[in-house]
Amino acid sequence: MSVVRAGKRSMRIIALPLCTHTRTATGRDSHLTYYHFVTPPPKEPKKQGWTDWATAKAADLWAGFGKAPEGTWKRKTFLYGERLVDRIDFEELALKSIDTSLGPKLFSKRPDASATEDSAQSSSTTHSIPTIPLIYPGAVCNSPMAHFRSLLEKRTPRHKRGAWFWLLISPLTAPFMIIPVIPNLPFFFCIWRSWHHYSAYKASAFLEQFVKRDAIKPIASPELDKIYAEYAPRPTPPSEAPQTADLDTDASSTPTSTLHPSVSERPPVAESEKCHPNTGSPQTDTTPKRLLLSKEAVPEIMKLFDIPPESTFAADVYRALEQARLRMDEENKRR
Fold first, then answer.
1. Of 73, 134, 159, 220, which one has the fewest beta carbons inside 10 Å?
2. How many other β-carbons are positioned within 10 Å of the β-carbon of residue 161?
3. What is the dihedral of CA 299, 303, 308, 309, to 10 degrees?
């Protein structure tokens, strides 16, 4: 059975390269990849803790703000909050979405303290470390493990610092409590950002343990290659290039359709442009970066991996593609 289908019963990671690979003048690799984490459904109904209750309560309250009449402070707060979410790095949003309690466990059983050395070794041998497949398009991307490892090494301490920073400055918002009618929005924002960073930190640290034990296995997907070949964006002539959009662009909205040339008309991905080169000394690359995937590919990817329609996958990928375009345009301007 294909790992694409079999992954329903276990955790899997889907790597979606967003733009071609380049190297800066300092020899630093520059590439953007969106990682989508799929966890299996719980085997039995999960008991709701106080954190789950608070999260659900906050989500319902926020949804109520979105349903408020136009022009009210609740509706304005909701729209501004959604724009703030679009500004958050898509890497953080992806990590924050992981429910680590549904992921595999590194040690399903610990040897008893009173057990003999031989029985402890036998127990550790019996309970092998589970593996997590990392599915990627091999035609446009070499193994993404090096990039994935580097991403976690950077993100783990960053989100740990972020969680403490926003938590420590939250008391400074106390003076806003004197404002009548409107709740202390700055306080709730600080708590939300702290919780957001903590969730991303916990997920990043969880994945790092599997990376250190070589328990994440890259697997090239021919099916994903076909989607990349069919939905690769057509290079836009300089005279038709759109101006860079503001960061407040609603990346979660359904994108407008664009024309796609036939597969034979699209430029192939050169070896030097692949998102994760295996070897080669760092050299400056002056080739402009370009997107590897269009928004029209998202429904096909959802169909391939059996991602349910109610999932946030589509909105997350749209946001990641928009952020990748903005970063790519900024980097191309500096060349």
1. 73
2. 12
3. 30
